[in-house]
Design brief:
By secondary structure, the protein is mostly helical. It has helices at residues 4-10, 14-30, 40-62, 70-85, 93-116, 122-140, 164-180, 183-193, 195-200, 205-231, 239-252, and strands spanning 158-159, 162-163. It has two domains: 1-35; 40-252, no CATH class. The chain has eleven helices and two strands, in the order H-H-H-H-H-H-E-E-H-H-H-H-H. A two-stranded antiparallel sheet has the order 1-2. It is globular, with a radius of gyration of 19 Å. The two termini are 22 Å apart.
Amino acid sequence: MNRVLPLFQRWPFAFAFLLALVLLVLNLIVSPSFLSPARLPGTLATLAPFVLVGFASTPSILAGGIDISVGPLATFINCLFVAILIPAGLGNWDLAAPIILAVAAGIGALNGILVAVLRLHPVVATTGMLFLLVGLSLTIAQNPVAAPNNWTEAFAGGIGIVPGALLTIGVAGLIWFALRRTAFVSNLLATGESDVSAYGSGVNIKAIRILAYTLGGLFAGIAGIALTAIVQSSQSSLASTYALLGLAAAVLG
């Protein structure tokens, strides 16, 4: 035990990696075909919404706050696409994707304004947004609405030889990788460590926090696309489930 603890302190990701490895082994014991090539696209597609909601929870936590609304935002995007955009003739990817991502990022930015500008506590602001999004989802799709054939189906299977879920997860990963090459991530981490020290160093605390929540909203929008890919219907009832799983994923990560 004395040797294990320093290992976890030196490499913080080691515990999460160990937990993932244990879960993988258990899945292989229960279902030996778990990682078979035929099942891999479907397995990754099921995992993608959870991964992306975890992504969405992370920027606000790194900024010293929290966003409880990213799970309900993903389900709201799912309902918006299936119950509003497709019936309105806006279901094609070149029309729907920009609308979805803009709405999601805008809602995230609103959370950031509530926290950074109006100085509401992050739990209060994002819990209020959670209830608002749940209410909107129930208003536009109280009962599940089946989706016709649409472009999100590709993300539940394979696109050529590439599992579709790797594209949704990969887009979020590439966005974060690109941002790490800018000053934004350094300023984000500095803000979360000590906003007073960061402000004294010339960091625009308000802008960084608004951008953090905006980025979380953008990732939640991608999660909504990944969720639609596997359910192919509006699922407002999943809001609370993804809210809890998003927070758990971010904490473990």
